[in-house]
## 1
Amino acid sequence: MKIYIFTIFPEYFECFKNYGIVSKAIKQGKVEIETVNLRDFTKDRHRTVDDVVYGGGPGMLLKPEPIFEAYDYLKSKGVNPYTLITEPWGEKFNQDKAKALSKKEEILIICGRYEGVDERVKVLVDEEVSIGDFILSGGEPAVLVIMDAVIRLLPEVLSDEKSKEIDSFSDGLIGYSNYTRPYEYRGMKVPDVLLSGNHKLIQLYRRWDQLQKTLKKRPDLLEKANLSDIDKKMLNYIIYGKSFEDFLKEEKVD
Ligand code: SAH
């Protein structure tokens, strides 16, 4: 995958490239990140990328010319990117969008700054994307978020491919609770079922835990989740305030 970023602050992304999974993915050649400095596509001595807003009003806007020129430059190199622009009102970025983007070969993300971009730039854009209902001072932090979520989904980037499947949202629910050593810490113990070695039981308990957490913390997710018959049964127990042990006993699971 190749990711191009149109920005007035190309150095912003350097630190991001040097850490963790992203850095590994770059070293392995799974992803290449190329920042394009919009100032390189200005024609005046001051390398101006912004201008005042027609009709008046506060602030400045990113001018259309550097963005179009930079886009033409990519096209002239044979790049045919799926193009996004960061906008606070854009479609909300989420795990499904991250998955869809991880399947693209060439992505371009245009970072807005100031009051935003000249509206005519939108003819280049396939998708307007937001990372939430709040206002950032520029698209760059949003692009870091998007790239991080997408890159870890690329094939063979995570050391354990299975972790993608158990992450929150991957199956419509919150991920299950995890524990590591020590077994007991400050009076708090690890649920014994996790030490039982009974794989089927552990799987069932984790599913119970996922359902319980989702019901409590993100009930909105349950409406869209793909629940099996056993999920629905467990959910009923949870709603009636029963424990996992009650469920095992009453449903005669062993
Ligand atoms: N005046 C604009 C906000 C401009 S913020 C408005 O009222 O909507 C400057 C730039 O930051 C935007 O052009 C966009 O590229 C980026 N940005 C701000 N908030 C964002 C968010 N929540 N998600 C993605 N990008 C955002």
Note: The longest strand covers residues 82-92.
## 2
Amino acid sequence: MRKFNLFVTVLFFTGLSSLQAQEKIPFVEDLLQKMTVEEKIGQLNLLTPGGGVATGAVVSENVETKIKAGQVGGLFGVAGPEKIKMAQDFAINDTRLKIPLVFGSDVIHGYKTTFPIPLGLAASWDMALIEKTARIAATEATADGINWNFSPMVDIARDPRWGRIAEGAGEDPYLGSAIAKAMVKGYQGNNLTDATTMLATVKHLALYGASEGGRDYNSVDMSRVKMFNEYLPPYKAAIDAGVSSVMTSFNDVDGIPASGNKWLLTDLLREQWGFNGFVVSDYTSVNEMIAHGLGDLQAVSALALNAGLDMDMVGEGFLTTLKKSLEEGKVSEEQITQACRRILEAKHKLGLFEDPYRYIDAKRPAKDILSDENRKVAREAATRSFVLIKNHKNVLPLKRNAKIALVGPLANNKNNMLGTWAPTGDPQLSVPILEGLQKVAPAARITYAKGANISDDPELAKKVNVFGPRIDIDERSPEKLLQEALDLANKSEVVVAVVGEATEMSGEAASRTELSIPESQKKMIRALVATGKPVVLVLMSGRPLTIAEELALPVSILQVWHPGVEAGNAVADVVFGDYNPAGKLTASWPVSVGQIPIYHSMKNTGRPATSEAFQKFQSNYLDAPNAPLLPFGYGLSYTKFEYSEPSISKKEVAQGESVDITVTIKNTGNYDGEEVVQLYLRDVVRSITPPMRELKGFKKVFLKKGETKSVSITLSPDDLKFYNSQLEFVSEPGAFEVYIGTDSNATQKVTFSLP
Ligand code: BGC
């Protein structure tokens, strides 16, 4: 064990030394010298004036007066050169030290050019593409004056009841880390003074995706070993990629809400990980510690500052209580100065002291926002995010002159294409599926009927329609709607039914305890199948759904998430075969809600079920299988790929060495196509219980029809490591199994050992 401890010490030291190596910026130090305590406290407040984009229940009051009084460090929910200039003018012309404001926004999956929801983008497994979408998002947002993004959201989510699973990369820390890096790079570029780059924020530290019962904002309780191995890696990856800020989460971690958790914000984040940017709270999350039960506003604000939180989003607890806490000795001036320093350093990184108007250029929006080129990338990204779940009798792709009955509540609908967390996008600019199909295949004979409401439940509609009419309950009766669809189906060669969730059925505060397609649409699907016509379900959702019933029907299923502004064009590209789908699920789809949490890297238990049939005294259910309906990594293609036996570069791998696994794959079907080759590792014996397998590598490759390619994936020394019960990052001697193939059920195996 000594050897490992030595290594750990080195790692820890690297973290510390990078912290110590952080040089103070003379300009910022000079400025701090000139600032009063009140002015320093002023910088620690992030306000939202309302009237623009609403992302929370509370909006700030008297914002202009507060800016002029030097009580504001930044704003969010404001956009456009004119408005941003007006606010910046208040700070520059009306405050003593002329400290510029920073302008934030939630640019989660595109700014005005809305890309697919992040869970969909993740399904592309294409890091270059994801980085490109982030680059475009930054270019568009900065054209509108915004220089700080509240993205990427990297919370691992293994509970699809939680609506915010839509906003991240899914269940896996390895893939999640790769995506975190790509997004930080896309937003921040190589030089933050470039006016097309912006500060990125990794959020929500930490563990927000593990809220109990999948209910938003709920408590989290988790062992350190699980945190370190399974939940923390993507945050750490963003920090290693140079992310400028960190947003805390609403939940508690080990009994202390993240916004007041010193272990999290100082010991781990700064001392161990070497983060030297600034930490912002989530929306009123400092104040929410009152409801969590940690004291009054003064107490929780002092707790947050002392824990290492630098900026208070919306809550104004810092603004209204820190001075008093200072006088009472509950916080130190050094703490206030330190928080202020970090915020000023971020502004300095953006070049705002040199030119507070760097991001304000009235000519940029028209040029940079929603350009044809950006829309082209949105279309491409959407096609790459789609997952072909089932292709019954190879009905897809459709003939370009097919006689199609296009039905379903999402078939000719602009309001639900962008998906959740697209507060800056305009739904009315999105391409509905009907329009896309007509444009891409003008020879197709397409008729359209709505067929069903997304839901017939007016109570649900009320809750979901907070940002606009997402569930629109028709004046016609459900029976009448259905009959119209059936009439068209009977006259067609094929039925395309666009079904699923409205955008706001997932996202923030949109948890569900039932994950099926709403009953109104299920009825329609059953009736369409009963016509005997081939049926293609184009399925939209912000999360894994429970679709066991639909999967068992003789239908084809194309999962398209919420595809973004180019929805219709992208769906048409795939439905007519201009692009062969290659997306792979990044969160397991359960058979039923009772299986949740479910993910590919579960552990074996001491009593693993060894057959599909029920076994008494083994770990299984009376009424459901253990396996998910659709495993992590799953997704079909219009073509077929055949994998050879894998080979390995060595059977014994010394500590510190890498090892290559190689497989040959052949495209044996009738279409060119892409495949995501996935590698899973099992550490057979170790000092803490290992997962049955974990994703540790992947490569996306394109193969022409008939083409064969050899694909090598390297396992690095770090890929063999894990955090042991002392939280040391180690690899331990013993046998390893490597599985390589098309999804997380891959059976092709090679083994090696670490002596
Ligand atoms: C969300 C954050 C978001 C913030 C600001 C909060 O409700 O949890 O993800 O960045 O609002 O809009």
Note: The chain is about 30% helix and 15% strand.
